[in-house]
């Protein structure tokens, strides 16, 4: 039943991909699908002694990629992988930062950036965000599950995703998701 629903959603979402933003998206873009390489760093001026800092990143787990807007991955990552309070304080700043980096990359490939103005990007976010809500909400449960309440992985199947795993992290992330979506008029 869950697999049928996911397949139906995937077909419907892919049919809605709109140029110029449409591209291949990860569709499960959260911190556990990233691998970081760290390097030792020391800076006496900033009181940092033998701190590890990330110097490279690799993305993994591409089995459910789809043709859609990169906004899906951006929203999914922000709402599933950010620390408490980050979205409330810095959502607009993070969106702006993403857009600036996106434009910088397009310019390095001599792409016409006209169709990718910040205004068009905001319109893309407002179009995609309501459709991404259920995807985020559905996967917040297993992503932020309290390890104390998780069942043994040997018993895990596709229906295990809907079993409430509880915990404060999950509750806070759902609260943030609903609050942010409500404030932006994205709940439909």
UniProtKB/TrEMBL annotation:
Family matches, as Pfam families: EcKL
Designated name of the protein: CHK kinase-like domain-containing protein
């Amino acid at each position: 039943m869950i697999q049928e629903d996911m397949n139906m959603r995937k077909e419907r979402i892919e049919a809605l991909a709109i140029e110029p933003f449409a591209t291949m998206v990860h569709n499960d873009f959260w911190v556990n699908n990233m691998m970081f390489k760290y390097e030792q760093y020391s800076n006496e001026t900033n009181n940092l002694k033998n701190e590890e800092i990330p110097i490279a990143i690799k993305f993994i787990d591409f089995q459910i990629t789809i043709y859609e807007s990169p906004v899906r991955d951006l929203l999914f990552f922000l709402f599933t992988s950010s620390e408490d309070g980050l979205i409330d304080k810095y959502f607009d700043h993070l969106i702006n930062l993403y857009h600036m980096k996106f434009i910088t990359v397009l310019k390095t490939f001599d792409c016409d950036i006209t169709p990718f103005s910040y205004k068009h990007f905001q319109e893309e976010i407002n179009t995609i965000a309501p459709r991404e809500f259920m995807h985020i909400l559905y996967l917040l449960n297993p992503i932020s599950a309290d390890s104390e309440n998780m069942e043994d992985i040997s018993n895990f199947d596709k229906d295990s995703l809907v079993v409430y795993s509880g915990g404060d992290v999950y509750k806070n992330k759902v609260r943030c998701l609903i609050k942010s979506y409500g404030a932006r008029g994205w709940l439909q």
